[in-house]
Design a protein that fits this description.
The protein has 173 residues and is mainly α. The protein folds into two domains: 16-105, NADH-ubiquinone oxidoreductase 51kDa subunit, iron-sulphur binding domain (de novo design (two linked rop proteins)), CATH 1.20.1440.230; 117-172, 2-Layer Sandwich (Alpha-Beta Plaits), CATH 3.30.70.20. Helices cover 49% and strands 6% of the residues. The chain has helices at residues 16-30, 36-53, 59-75, 79-83, 86-94, 96-105, 130-134, 160-164, and strands at 119-121, 140-141, 149-150, 170-172. Strands 1-4 form a two-stranded antiparallel ribbon. A two-stranded antiparallel ribbon has the order 2-3. The two termini are 29 Å apart. Bound molecules: iron/sulfur cluster (3 copies). One iron/sulfur cluster binds next to α7.
Length: 173
């Protein structure tokens, strides 16, 4: 349950860890602060999710997430706190692999968590130079009509090359 009276459609481009974070940000904002589990517990849950989406999570964090989420659900005073952890519990049950990919592979399968994205150029590149010209940190090199290459150490993951390439030659994942 992520709300009431509505249906939310998500596809493979939606990261389920980020979706959980989105809903938790809302409840942290809306918490009236009267009871401790909701006021403090949800903030701790949010911190853990932020850690995972930045690629700094551990498998122990997943155990902590579940334990804390269940405690908040059981001990909060009103419906807001009692339902706030639902997106986390639900996605842990149904999209466990996505959490693991963020933690173990440092990869966001949906390609949505910016800190985990990497950009590279594939063999479709025709060497038009458009990406090199828009890159704000000049980390793309290559000659005209030859395949270009991204220096991933310098890349700031702005996505400008991905947006401008008309040949599907930039991989993001
Ligand atoms: S669970 Fe309800 S009463 Fe408790 S802090 Fe959250 S909003 Fe307030
Ligand atoms: S914009 Fe695309 S085709 Fe052009 S050089 Fe860059 S990667 Fe290659
Ligand atoms: S994502 Fe941005 S910084 Fe990275 S290579 Fe592409 S244009 Fe350059």
């Amino acid at each position: 349950m992520m709300g009431s009276g509505g249906m939310i459609v998500l596809d493979e481009d939606d990261c389920m860890v980020a979706v959980s974070k989105f809903y938790l940000e809302f409840t942290v904002e809306e918490s009236c602060g009267k009871c401790t589990p909701c006021r403090i517990g949800n903030k701790r849950l949010l911190e853990i999710l932020e850690k995972i989406t930045k690629g700094n999570g551990t498998m122990e964090d997943l155990e902590l997430l579940r334990e804390l989420a269940e405690t908040i659900k059981d001990t909060s005073l009103c419906g807001l706190g009692q339902t706030a952890p639902n997106p986390i519990l639900s996605t842990l049950d149904n999209f466990w692999d996505e959490y693991v990919a963020h933690i173990v592979d440092k990869r966001c399968p949906a390609g949505s968590c910016e800190d985990l994205l990497t950009y590279s150029i594939n063999d479709k590149c025709i060497g038009c130079t458009a990406c090199a010209r828009v890159c704000p940190v000049s980390c793309i090199e290559g000659k005209v009509k030859e395949k270009h290459v991204i220096d991933t150490d310098k890349c700031i993951k702005c996505g400008a090359c991905y947006d401008i390439c008309k040949f599907g030659a930039i991989d993001r994942g």
